[in-house]
Amino acid sequence: MIDKFVRSVAEAMAGIKDGATVLVAGFAQIGEPRALVDGLIEQGAKDLTVVHNTAGRGREGVARLIGEGRVRKIICSFARSRGSVLFEEVYARGAIELEMVPQGTLAERIRAGGAGIPAFFTPTGGGTLVARGKETRIIDGRECVLEQAIRGDVALVEAWRADRWGNLVYRDAGRNFNPIVAAAGTLTIVQAQNVAELGELTPEMIVTPGIYVDRVVHVPSGDPPVVIS
Amino acid sequence: MIDKFVRSVAEAMAGIKDGATVLVAGFAQIGEPRALVDGLIEQGAKDLTVVHNTAGRGREGVARLIGEGRVRKIICSFARSRGSVLFEEVYARGAIELEMVPQGTLAERIRAGGAGIPAFFTPTGGGTLVARGKETRIIDGRECVLEQAIRGDVALVEAWRADRWGNLVYRDAGRNFNPIVAAAGTLTIVQAQNVAELGELTPEMIVTPGIYVDRVVHVPSGDPPVVIS
Amino acid sequence: MAGDWKPWTREALAARVAQDIPEGWYVNLGIGIPTLVGNCVPPDREVVLHSENGIVGMGPAPAPEALNPWLVNASRQHVTLRTGASYMNHADSFGLVRGGHLDLCVLGGFQVAENGDLANWSRSQTDNAPAIGGAMDLAVGAKRIWVVMEHTTKSGEKRLLRRCTYPLTATGCTKRVYTDLAVIDVTDKGFVVVDTVPGLPFDELQARTDAPLRQA
Amino acid sequence: MAGDWKPWTREALAARVAQDIPEGWYVNLGIGIPTLVGNCVPPDREVVLHSENGIVGMGPAPAPEALNPWLVNASRQHVTLRTGASYMNHADSFGLVRGGHLDLCVLGGFQVAENGDLANWSRSQTDNAPAIGGAMDLAVGAKRIWVVMEHTTKSGEKRLLRRCTYPLTATGCTKRVYTDLAVIDVTDKGFVVVDTVPGLPFDELQARTDAPLRQA
After folding, report:
1. A26, A37, D33, D125: least buried by Cβ within 10 Å?
2. What is the torsional sign of CA A210, A216, A222, A225?
3. Strands B168-169 and B152-162
4. D11 is catalytic
5. Do A173 and C72 make contact, defined as CB atoms within 8 angstroms?
6. B25 to chain C, minimum CA–CA distance in Å?
């Protein structure tokens, strides 16, 4: 019987190696696999390349991973942003490499990684600093940039419901990067708010089929923080 | 009030011009917009480039469009197949141009068209006849082929349910090419088996958001034919 | 007298933009003043708002008691859904953006050039760690880019330029600029003034603008 | 005596393949004999079948009274769903294929070369209007390609070759070949015989094979 559930976050994070590329889903703290990132901090792997929409905010999650010196390189679309204090510190002393990517290009590169497309041309960034040092080509009159797929040795995902096959659904805006990150990981690890019986998630409902998922841990961590700006 | 429903197939097909590129969704007669293809035959546009998984079978639908000499070029993954009689006739007398594309590359080229990716490299077809005459490049040790996006001046789609915004859901294996074809058309026309009130299709259920859809016509054509092989 | 005019407020500017958005358009609203535009579209005019984190059909901010912690827009503000809304993943959402499906994107700006170039993500050619976000994708993808910004910086530096000096977001993308002083089209012949705040003399507008202005 | 052996039937061959598929694998089965393999996997062994038209978790053929006209596999046969199955669109389905997520794809073949090259879509270098379908995507994408075919053509032409003469589906993709006579691994050192039908002498197998065979 296929059963991808593991009993603990520690078990879920087992085997992640130094030097791994780790994709971390989530957007603006929604659908962010915080328990798994904490598990990764605990687990100890270092020299990581982290792919995430931001370089972290505050002092937790991806920010803490960076603050503890475990991230050799970050690939993101927002580096400097409100609350990116730990990244700023580490970056200022030259202790982290940064690759800045437009957000749509970041999403498409991850999608390409999961879908077996090694590289693609995109008009995004044509004629800007983003194109600097990259192969470009005029297509239909527009400068397009050749961008490379991103795959993760590890992909960290947050889902709303998961079944034992690893089929996933997401909640509201918590979907964001999760489906593409799930598909782009060699080892895809999911924290799920709720456990579903096989068959409760119907064929039409399922957003991420279990084929993309390796391990699921039940983490009923509750609602993301409400931010009133 | 946004209301994309039109009253007839004829109204749905209005304005399609000679020389148009027409994407036709469907796979193995499931989810195939047959009423719209018949409407296109009726409507009269010629010199068409048709993009469809096959070159048609039997004497109806895409096959009939070809048989009537209205298709200048077909882009497909199955040309010669059981029942491709009309295509064979027209092709034998040199009256149609054929572009053969591996099925996954066809799907990805259409997806790229809808997603604003002008071209991409794929390992599919590397080292084969498919790569002949195309730009290739060794990436990660594999020969990859540069493939171009496909967009349609017109996209023909079959859906199970549609609402007045043009939001769509599909039935079972009727999903196939429909969502990517819908997104890749400049004028996207949908035949829907059922009409839903706005809001009946929930945010989680909707597969194709109405932004991709221009016209919807209600065609309760019923189940596709059962084929026992 | 020459000083007898007032700049539009942020709210008036947002309302001015909203006035020009017809029913049925699919629209993405960037961070800042553009976000305010959504609140100014009359509820009975169906304009469908996209948020690049994966929502088509976004509604206004929720009543506090109805706030859904799982539902935010790309600016991380809590929002609601309109009837007919749907979710999609980030790659599909930016595919929608890049694929030319948005009728309009309203973006904030630092500088706009008379050739339509937009700079709105970095004030330095040498800052290597800024925030790019989704602006470049939106700028190349939407059918129309309207830029909303103050006509000059607080210290009076001009923002409507012959050529941008800040790093570009995209080349030639801007179709129209809404400032606190004027509405200006970007045309083949450069900037064309469509509207101004009441009482503002043309030469005063030109004095605050680097590139030459034409009257419509 | 030398003739005292029988080729495996299509059903026996399908069963032989099924025997080698462990629980938990994600598998795509091509047209022809490969499709039969699905019926030979014991129901209590969870093997998840993918169909490239957009199904993960396909089940066997339906009882006639339970046939769903909207549910077919890539060979256009009516099928069922297992509990846990899901649908996806064609681009996502081939993304799954190309992205290396299938543990195994079992394909039919015309020819396999000792370097793993596979030819299974056209018997002519000059036929310009054949059927390609999804075989090329599957051949480059799955973690393992097993090819199932008769060891020779009906007229006795060899199919396990030093080099393919038909147009290739993909280069170097084949990991194992199941024929009606033998199970043969494709290795760095060429073809290695893993199993044969009972009683078949090695030299008789070699006589029906163009490329040199090694014994495991």
Report:
1. D125
2. negative
3. antiparallel
4. no
5. yes
6. 19
Of D169, D170, D159, give the one whose Cα is nearest residue D121: D169
Interchain proximity A209–D57, CB inside 8 Å: yes
Q: Which residue of D has its CA nearest to A118?
A: D99
Inter-chain CB proximity A120 and B112 less than 8 Å:
yes
Between vectors from CA A38 to CA A36 and to CA A40, what angle results, nearest 5°? 70
B1–chain D nearest CA distance, Å: 30
Query: At a CB cut-off of 8 Å and minimum separation 6, what does C184 contact?
Result: C160, C176, C177, C191, C192, C193, C194, C213
pLDDT of residue B229: 58
In contact, A33 and A57? CB cutoff 8 Å: no
Residues of A with CB under 8 A from a CB of B: 108, 112, 115-123, 139-140, 142, 144, 169, 172, 203-205
Query: CB of B74 within 8 A of CB of B50?
Result: yes
Chain B residue numbers with beta carbons less than 8 Å from the beta carbon of C100 are 116
Q: Are C117 and C174 in contact (CB under 8 A)?
A: yes
pLDDT of residue D26: 98
- Residues C169-208: pLDDT tens digits? 999 999 999 999 999 999 999 999 999 999 999 999 999 9
Q: What is the 3-state secondary structure (H, E, C) of B84-145?
A: CHHHHHHHHCCCCEEEECCHHHHHHHHHHHHHCCCEEEECCCCCCHHHCCCCEEEECCEEEE
Rounded CA gap, A143 and A139, in Å? 6
- Residue of D53, D67, D128 lying closest to B226 (CB–CB): D67
Q: What is the CA radius of gyration of chain C?
A: 17
pLDDT reading at C125 higher than 90: no
Q: How many CB pairs under 8 A join A and B?
A: 48
Best B3, B111, B165, B205 residue to mutate vs chain C (most C CBs within 10 Å): B165
Cβ–Cβ < 8 Å for D112, D79:
no
Chain D residues with beta carbon closer than 8 angstroms to that of A203: 57, 81, 85-87
- C140 neighbourhood in chain A, CB within 8 Å: 123-124, 126, 142
Contacts of B183 in chain C (CB under 8 A): 95-96, 99, 101
The ipTM, to two decimals, is 0.97
3-state DSSP assignment of residue B9:
helix
In the predicted structure, residue A80 carries a pLDDT above the cut 90: no
Closest among B55, B205, B27, B25 to D71, alpha carbons compared: B27
- Give the Cα separation of C182 and A137 in Å (integer): 37
Helix ranges (H only) for C99-177 are 135-141
User: Residue type for B53, please?
Assistant: N
Comparing C-alpha atoms, which of D57, D34, D24 is closest to residue D176? D34
Pairwise CA distance, residues B46 & B17, whole Å: 8
Instruction: With a cut of 80, say whether residue B198 has pLDDT above it.
Output: yes
Count of CB atoms situated within 10 Å of the CB of C211:
18
pLDDT for res D123: 86
Q: Residue D57 and residue A117: Cβ atoms within 8 Å?
A: no
Residues of A in contact with B107 (CB under 8 A): none
How far off is chain A from B147, nearest CA to CA, in Å? 9
What is the Cα–Cα distance from D81 to D63, expressed in whole angstroms? 12
Q: What is the pLDDT of residues A133-163, one digit of tens each?
A: 999 999 999 999 999 999 999 999 999 999 9
Q: Do C94 and A229 touch (CB under 8 A)?
A: no
Ramachandran angles phi, psi of D135, nearest 5°: -60, -40
